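Slide 14.
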Amino acid sequence: MNAPITVTSLSTQIKSLLETTFMDVYVEGEISNLTYHSSGHIYFSIKDDKSTMSCVMFRGNTKYLKFKLEVGLKINIRGSLTVYTPRGSYQLICNRIEPSGQGALALAYEQLKEKLKQKGYFDPSIKKNLPKYPKKIALVTSPTGAAIQDMLKVANHRWNLVEFILVPTLVQGETAKDDIAKSIKYADTLNCDIIIVGRGGGSIEDLWAFNEEIVANAIYEAQTVIISAVGHEVDFLISDFVADVRAATPSNAIEIALPDTNEHRIYIDTLTQDFENRLKNILYSKEQNIIHLKRMYEQNSIETKFNLISSEIKMLKLSFDNRFSNILNSCQNSISLLKNSFEHNSPEKKHKKGFVQISKDNKIIELENINIGDNISLQTPTHIANAKIENIKKQ
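Slide 15: predicted structure.
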């Protein structure tokens, strides 16, 4: 009978067998018992409906992990089996971890987006307004990329009354996130009106630095207005949501940040025309007021009043002359009538041979009105005879 071996010896043999047999495994499972250790290692278990397996991802490999592990998340692991001999237990050493059925970058993007949303990084009420006429703009981008040339070209055509300060920055690669965050913090101290953070287009991996939390924190904490201009119009990065303004492209960021010279020329022409029209209207209105005042003055001047009174005097004089003339004519007519009547009734004209005028008590009467005994006077133009009626005979 063979001599027994020690527990350690058996564990070592098992360890050697497992590690040489399962050097590269690819396994799917659901995360449970998750622990992020202060050492930087990640301890957790994966399970299916029947079994559970212990796993560990050492700190050296966590830098390749693009998303955050969460309990209940289904993942695919590539790694190797090992045995921890002091306890005689085996575990899966994880080299790479990907979310099951979803890309790691897409999951990391959604996780960070939700995290920052909950922290209030996307709140519209904290967004700062762009200045209308910026004088100095910091460009946080690569000095050798096409983006910087495109931005300067648009700026020169659109509004050349602005100073640009280039903050050379790595915008791609493992260390890009740290360099971008550092550049944003530096640009925030330059007393610029606007900071434009961005780069040209590329794959999601090329643009990933702008999806990192350290960059989001730098944008959120900056006191200067920030425009995020990363990639193309279809690309939406975490920096776009955190920044005060999102631009579809770097060139679009310049269009957003700067006023348009041509638009302002048109606007100035419009203001000039409007000013001229208003000035003409004001002058015309003042001219009409002066004309009105002049007319009012002329109507109420001493000369006008004198002329009015003089005219009234002339009218009164004319009226007086007319009335006086009418009165004279009327009197003249009356006199003429009296004269005619006098002449018509004059005794000289009325006297005929054999005719006399009969008067009684100094009143002319007719012969038919004489009574017997009346004392009458018989009168011709040259003689008066007194008589007494003694007899009356009717024919």
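Speaker note: The CA atoms of residues 278 and 284 lie 10 Å apart.
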